[in-house]
Design a protein that fits this description.
By secondary structure, the chain is of the alpha/beta class. The protein is built from 11 helices and 14 strands. The strands form 3 sheets. An 8-stranded mixed β-sheet has the order 6-7-8-3-9-10-12-11, sandwiched between helices. Strands 2-1-4-5 form a 4-stranded antiparallel β-sheet, with helices on one face. Strands 13-14 form a two-stranded antiparallel sheet. Keywords: ATP-binding, Nucleotide-binding, Transport.
Length: 348
Amino acid sequence: MSALLRVEDLRVRFRTMGPLKALATGTKAPFIDAVCGVSFEIRKGETLALVGESGSGKSTIARTIIGLQRAVSGSISFDGQEIGKLSGAERKPYLRRMAMIFQDPIGSLSPRLTVQSLLTEPFRIHGLKDRDARGEAERLLRMVGLLPADFACRFPHQLSGGQARRVGIARALALNPELIIADEPTAGLDVSVQGDVLNLLARLQDELGMAILIISHNLNVVRHATDRMGIMYLGRFIEVGATDRIFDQPRHPYTEALLAANPEPDPDAVLNRIELKGEVPSLMRRPTGCEFHTRCRYVQDICSRIFPGPSTDPDETEHSFRCHFPLNGETAIPLEQKRLSLAGPTLK
């Protein structure tokens, strides 16, 4: 199936000090790379998850795709059209075909607007003034299960967290987008409400055929709601593949530790926790070689000297990773012994 969204070698950086201070201190590159050479694609009707610790660059990628942040280099293509370098007016027709659900359900809703105004704002932005505002608001509210008629007249402070989340989803669906970017769609919600939100997204995906990019720390959500997942560390992808495959056979030591930290609801389950020693390195002082070597329990001398290239499993070319000593079951073995294929889709 052809890719709906394709991101290639994306790099996003932020300035750490002003030009005058950089000149005074002799700093040649007063920037940090929040996203560093990331490549991936999302196919039509597919759900892809971005997973990683806070600060790994997940939300920055989402904001760059939607146009809220500019990339330094790389490309973003939507349905075969490069949109990353388009101006706001040129990108507008493509933004109509994608939408974002923001992480903070209340904070993403203007406190000055009613729910009806919030839901119909996309129509005004894109010049669809012939729509019946009241009718469209009620249609969208029914889609997300907010049935009482007075919901359209409420303000954000009159909504619970779950209701605000549903309003955010309804607003994202207003223009029937082909891609929805959901940044922590279940964060801060009760478990029962989380299930309702996930079931809602799954149902709407089946009905509308849209693709979904989910950003989440909740690995249970990722396992049950996504087709593929990408693991991020310090702004890079270190492992990408089918969700079930990564959960069953993680190849990168960081992925192994991340999955081992997932809460287990069974109180009698035997837990095999993996303790990662040390702190997450600063983006201002990236480690040399493999950036995870400062916390890896399988670290060898080569790990601190040489940045690992992209590799893929010989029997699953869409499962790719960056590691000198990829895991095989419970054992980390050198790449030269494993002789992994370098063909097929790889990380960048």
